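WARN no homologs supplied; continuing
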Amino acid sequence: MIPGIKPLKIGNVEIGFPVVQAALSGYSDWAMRMIARRMGASYSLCEVMLDQFLVSLKDRKKTQHFLYNTPEEHPVAGQLMGAEPEQFALGAQKLVEAGFAVIDINFGCPVRKVLGRCRGGFHLSQPAVALEIVQQTRDKVPAHIPVTIKMRRGLDDTAESRDNFYEILDGAFAYGIDAITVHGRTVQQRYIGPSRWSFLKEVKDYVGPDKTILGSGDLFSADDCLRMMQETGVDGVTVARGCIGNPWVFEQARKIFDGEPLPPPPSVHQQREVMLEHFRLAEELYGPERAGVPMRKFGIKYAASHPQGQIVRDDFVRVKDFDAWRAVLDRWYSDDAPGVYPSRSLYEQEQECG
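OK structure emitted
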């Protein structure tokens, strides 16, 4: 390990390698998390779920994938979003019953329809409600299960937003929150402009070495992960858009953290092997008849590592089932060749909800 970077621990949960997969709305299902885990991620978070949805969720085949997790991927966190403190706590209880090792509270999502329903990043404008959610959730979740929070640096860049951020930060730790992930953009920014890493350093310096802060925002390569920890002092980083279709980023980060050279991007045949396994896992999760549609968006992202990425991407747009997926692989991934590192611009689009 590089000096100054330590194994990550959240509450009583030993994470280890401090580069983890973030919660990604519409993406971080069990299949994606399993691939990330096998490629070196030590911890991951499921896609964010609404408290109302969880409280009313029935044990049905069509919805079982939302809470699906297995021992091989643990530790894994369930992320929750909502508006009402009491219902939020009941939703957290559902995640506990489903077997998630950590419960994560989303106070960061900047999507307009989420804000309009007083969820996600909206809570950064109302510290009293946010802290009531924190308190009731911490009280409802068993003491041995860590509770964490995902925040942005504020609703906007006003002094009031800054004060609200620190009020929530201090109050959450006082209520027994085990770790807080901070995204370096404001809610108002959404994904426009750079993530302010200097704010992450400010927060980490403020809370000191005994409280766990993870950083988020603009992590598109293994080198980005290393630089964020070195520049800000955060205890770990959560990779979001930069790992969609690029699970190799975790393996690459482990190599450079161990003092080895950055490995080359995966070859075309290495990509093919992982993509076939990802589709197999998706079939296991959704069933063969339903796996094609959710996998289409992954194929589009995987194409970024192919030397003819744009053409390959256009083929994945039409995928509806495994036969079509396999046909794209047979067309573009049969002959081996060196891969490429994905272009940062391909990932700088709205994908996560955090």
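Residues 95 and 292 are 27 Å apart (CA to CA).
OK
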